[in-house]
Fold each of these.
Amino acid sequence: MANHNSLPLPLIDVSPFNGREASSEAQRAAVAEELARACATHGAFYLKSGEIGKLTEDARLKVFNAAQEFFALPDDVKNKIPIRAGGFTRGYIPIGGESGSQAVEVKEAFSYGYPWPSTRTPENSLQGPNEWPDASAVSPHWQKTLEEFYAGMVQVAEAVTRALSVALGMDAEYFPSFCKEGDTISLMRLFHYFPSEKADGSGLAAAGARIGSSAHTDWGFLTLVLQQEGVTGLQVADTNGEWIDVPPVAGTFIVNAGDYLSLMTRGRVKSPLHRVVTSDKERLSLVFFYYPTYEAKIPMMEKDSETASRISLFVDQSKSTSSAEQQTLSSAETIGSFGEYIANKWSQVFRDPAGYKA
């Protein structure tokens, strides 16, 4: 395991904020102090979560194996459950099927979320049943493994929100109160980043920039990332705007604050700019996007404020808009609920991979 003193981001143990574990006020205060400093400086940190969510080493290995199993399926099986334009992102994303910029993102992904019953009518545009591959194509416990992982990640995210509340001088339930039923619209995404030579032979058009994931800030409340050991691809921009590698560390997640949280705290919590670069190795990454409640109102800031001008939430990321023409949305623009706005954001990054074919 890496020397913690040499890590590019701090390592914080939030297990004292697990509701089922007894911990002293001194322990919680120490964690809160570390967290406040990390959020103000980096907006990201390595997370140790102890037994929260039952995400043991064995559970993490199982979910990585499940991800590998899915991405090894024949294309015709994966393509039967495609993500479609419209903002409800469940199912398979092929290479070239999504991008936060004009670059081709050389990855494929599988997106799923809350186990919404097929018999229950969704209450908003971000709720609904998951899209799973045919049961005969995967191992017997494949879906259960992913569903248990989702439930565990929700519990970890809830512990982080409690810790963040205390870190910013509020009651432990302050931030959780903004995330009630946020688990029903949150997303888990399994990413498979292709090595350079695979991307070159994928049939993508030769022209145009390529990257693993375009530089962006995340739109929601929190993002938790479980990285594959032995392969570094994630990078975060430091306070000088330089890209720094964020290597995987066994037994940890990477947590970064989202734009919504940054806006709620008027920039006190930083929403970090980050990206994924490719190499000669393939890479798996499991990413959980934790959202506030669908009806949450987006805190607005002046257009030229440092926070509002740098976050992706207020940038048009649609394919028809070049990066040079992207405009920060006016704070006077009418914005509905967080859920409505996020559905539109997912539509902005949807791409037709056929448009990249040579």
Amino acid sequence: MERYEKIPLFGNMVVDENAGLSHTHIALSIMAVKYPATIFIYLSKYPQGKRIKKILYTAAWVLLYAVNETIDLSFNLLKYYNGWNFWWSIMFSTVMFTLLRVHYKKPLAAWLLSIGFIVFLWNLFDVPSSVFR
């Protein structure tokens, strides 16, 4: 199932239909712009020194993503399906930002941890193989 729905702009008019865009186009454009920009900023400003500084820095980015998702939810720009919810997004963001830093230092370890996390989520949410067609 798709995570995003069409958003009515005025009456029956729908933003993505009028622009000739599908949900896939919108999701891919977010992935192509937002996520790479986030990675570059997050890693380039990552603090050195004490562990607490690093934890607070990562927590600030998780909070930023949570605020963004809260705004999307309040405008009905986002819907959850298949048991996913806001708290799963918080956990996902925490793991994502942590693994980004691990990947910067030890790429192979990050890949192995990522695969383990994917398998965990896949089994927990009982993702059907039909999503890969």
